[in-house]
Known about the structure:
By secondary structure, the chain is α/β, with parallel strands linked by helices. The protein has eight helices and twelve strands.
Amino acid sequence: MARPAKTNGGPDTSIPAPGLAAGVGNKTTHAQSSSPRVLHPSGRSGHGRVIQLLRVVGFSVYFNFCCFIICITQFIGAPLYFFNRDWFYAYMAMTKRSFALTITLMTHIFGPTVIRTSGDESVAGQILPTAGGGVEFKFPERIVMIANHQIYTDWIYLWWVGYANRPGMHGHIYIILKESLKYIPMIGTGMMFYGFIFLSRKMATDQPRLAHRLNKLKQTKVDPQGNTYLDPMWLLLFPEGTNLSDNGRRKSSHWAAKNSLRDPEHVMLPRSTGTYFCLNELKDGVEYVYDCTVAYEGIP
């Protein structure tokens, strides 16, 4: 895992994530300058092979045990679906927050990361430094978040943004992802309980399913005083459709040449059909679209 990550989404600032190791960047620079033979941007490995093996074992035990407990918790609360849907969704939001805490602590222990955020004037005042050298976000409760997809860990940092947001939104994030992921043992089941949206990448097949799921996310509810409201929701989608691989870059370049478009250097051309469909379906219940760009040191 490359250590520094950058997420565009706020005024220019450079602050480490809350509770995550600071100063990694300085160590990296020293390691690179003192030993030109070290090619990895993170510098020399911080542990020997024995310790690395123990950390791999520790990570596997920690992550799988937490996922198992969360999955069991979900099954315990599943019967609520047949008695009170609001209770059911609130319960699943609680288990979603538990998973967000799991991956945040996982990153802190096994992959300390310095996160640098920057953005333009459209999000001024929504990313604020905290007294402890961390960061706090002030993003709305209902947004669509689109992002590039460089490597498989992008979603971890974007989910962490929901954790660092005030009010916390890590229990109300919904991710659109490829259908094959729901067959991952235990984790796939958990994602289905979370209400994540799985697509086959064939719009003729996906459109009815996508419309059904988005309709649930825009349902108007009424509180005991008779006031209408919408549930909090952060919808995360990756318009590129896949991570930044050599095969994906070739397809993007071919499509750009075929349609006389400029081929981006660090990202791929997005798939616009699904993104447009989502925005059109949610237009009456979402005011903001946040365009996030995630970049890692050493990855072109």
